[in-house]
Design goal:
The chain contains 7 helices and 10 strands. With about 290 residues, the chain is of the alpha+beta class. Among the domains are: about 30-85; about 185-294, no CATH class. A 4-stranded antiparallel beta sheet has the order 4-5-6-7. Strands 1-2-3 form a 3-stranded antiparallel beta sheet, with no helix packed on it. The N and C termini lie far apart (about 75 Å).
C-alpha cells in the first residue's frame, strides 16, 4: 500500500510505503528543451531544403551553386544538433535509496551510490544559472543543470540522503546553499517565464506591425522611438517582477536556513505578470495615439 505526500512548493510527490520508505524519484530536463528540439526539424529542415532548391535554380541560371552547399551544410548541422539534444530531452535522473542514476533512452549512462560520493562541487551565476558536479569512483562527474525540472527539490533530497549516511564532508554547506537558492529560483522563474514570454512575444509582434505600418503611412521616425519605449516599458516591468520581487525574496533568506524557501504563490505571480502585460498594452495604445496625432 502506498501513500503520496506533497513536498515543499512542488507538485512532485514522494512515495511512502507502509512499513518502509521508498524514495525513488524521477527528474527530467524542462519541457522547453523538447520544444526547441522539435522546432529544429519543423523550421530547420524545410529552410535547408529551400536553400538547396534556390541554390539549384540559381546554379542553373548563373553557374554558382553556393546556396546548395549552404543548404546542405545547415541541413546536416541541424540534424546533428537535433541528435545532440537527445542527451537532454531523452535523459532521466532517478533517485532511490542507494544511488543516483542517469538514463538516456532507458540506457544507464551513469550511476553513483551515495556512499561512493567523494565530492560535490557547484558552479553558479547567482540567480541566473549554473550546475552541480557529483564525483564518485568514476573520473567523469555527474552534472546536474538548473534546466532540470524541480532541480531545487532534487538537490535538497540528495543532500538529505548524504547527511543520513554521515557524508556531509563531501560538500561545502555555504557554497551548496547558494547554488540551491539559484536552483530554487530557477524552478520558479521558468514557471513565470512560460506564462509571460508567449504573451510578451504576441504584444511585441503587434507593436512591430503597428510601428512599421505607421512609419510607412506617416513617414515620421519618431514613431519608431515611441514604440521602442513601449517595448522597453513592458520588458522592464518583467525584469522588475523577477529581480526586485522574487530574487529579493530569495536573497533575504539567511544562508543558515534549514533548506526551506518562503512558500511560492503561483497565482500571485500570474496576477503580477498580468499587471505588467496590461502596462505594456497601455504603453502600446499611448504610442499608437501619439503616432496618429503627430
Amino acid at each position: 500500500m502506498n501513500k503520496c505526500y506533497n513536498i515543499g512548493n512542488s507538485s512532485r510527490k514522494l512515495n511512502i510505503k507502509v512499513g518502509g520508505f521508498n524514495m525513488e524519484q524521477k527528474y527530467t530536463y524542462r519541457g522547453h528543451l523538447r520544444k526547441i528540439q522539435k522546432w529544429m526539424l519543423i523550421i530547420g529542415i524545410p529552410l535547408s531544403v529551400l536553400f538547396v532548391i534556390l541554390g539549384i535554380i540559381l546554379g542553373v541560371a548563373t553557374g554558382e551553386y553556393t546556396f546548395v552547399g549552404v543548404g546542405l551544410f545547415f541541413g546536416i548541422y541541424d540534424l546533428l544538433l537535433y541528435k545532440t539534444y537527445d542527451r537532454f530531452t531523452k535523459a532521466e535522473f532517478i533517485l532511490d535509496e542507494e544511488k543516483i542514476t542517469l538514463k538516456i533512452k532507458d540506457v544507464i549512462k551513469q550511476e553513483i551510490k551515495y556512499a561512493d560520493i567523494t565530492k560535490i562541487d557547484s558552479k553558479s551565476i547567482r540567480y541566473t544559472g549554473g550546475w552541480m558536479l557529483i564525483y564518485g569512483q568514476s573520473k567523469k562527474p555527474l552534472r546536474l543543470m538548473v534546466t532540470i525540472k524541480d532541480i531545487g527539490l532534487m538537490i535538497k533530497q540528495i543532500k538529505q540522503k548524504i547527511d543520513e549516511i554521515e557524508m556531509s564532508h563531501v560538500y561545502q554547506e555555504d557554497k551548496l546553499i547558494k547554488f540551491f537558492k539559484t536552483a530554487y529560483y530557477a524552478d520558479q522563474s521558468w514557471q513565470r517565464s512560460s506564462y509571460f514570454i508567449p504573451r510578451y512575444l504576441l504584444i511585441l509582434l503587434v507593436q512591430m506591425i503597428l510601428a512599421i505600418s505607421l512609419l510607412i503611412i506617416k513617414e515620421n521616425r519618431l514613431i519608431i522611438f515611441l514604440f521602442i519605449v513601449a517595448i522597453v516599458i513592458l520588458l522592464f516591468g518583467f525584469i522588475y517582477v523577477e529581480y526586485f520581487i522574487y530574487v529579493k525574496n530569495i536573497r533575504k533568506q539567511s544562508d543558515q536556513t534549514n533548506w526551506d524557501i518562503v512558500p511560492y504563490d503561483e497565482n500571485l505571480a500570474k496576477r503580477r505578470l498580468k499587471k505588467v502585460l496590461q502596462l505594456g498594452m497601455v504603453a502600446t495604445i499611448v504610442a499608437l495615439i501619439i503616432s496618429l496625432i503627430i
